[in-house]
Amino acid sequence: MCVLIADLPMPAALRDVSAAGAFLETNARPPLGAGVELHHPEAGAIAGTVRLVATDGIQIGFEVCEQSVAFALAAISADMSRPGAH
Which residues neighbour 43 within 8 Å (Cβ) at sequence distance 6 or greater? Predict the structure, then answer.
């Protein structure tokens, strides 16, 4: 489980993640263009911008750089190392 920092910290689950961004299942609905921060228990924290607001969550975009690549790889590998995640 991740924590999305927008106006207030909210729980969020990663549905999809890459170096360019992530889709989060969350009850938070920050406005389009809002700056947010995503905290992952193993990948660390990364800043992003809200790109899409949907009924089941939000999509945030990251600046593609070494940090975003490392964040995505760490989040993916953490998910793959959990039992039953394959």
Answer: 70, 71, 72, 74, 75, 78
Amino acid at 21: G
| pLDDT tens sequence across 5-42 | 998 999 999 999 999 999 999 999 999 999 999 999 99
The answer to whether residues 22 and 38 touch, using CB atoms and an 8 Å cutoff, is yes
Q: What is the pTM of this model?
A: 0.89
Neighbour tally for 62: CB within 10 Å:
22
Distance (Å) of CA 10 to CA 3, 46, 66: 6, 15, 26
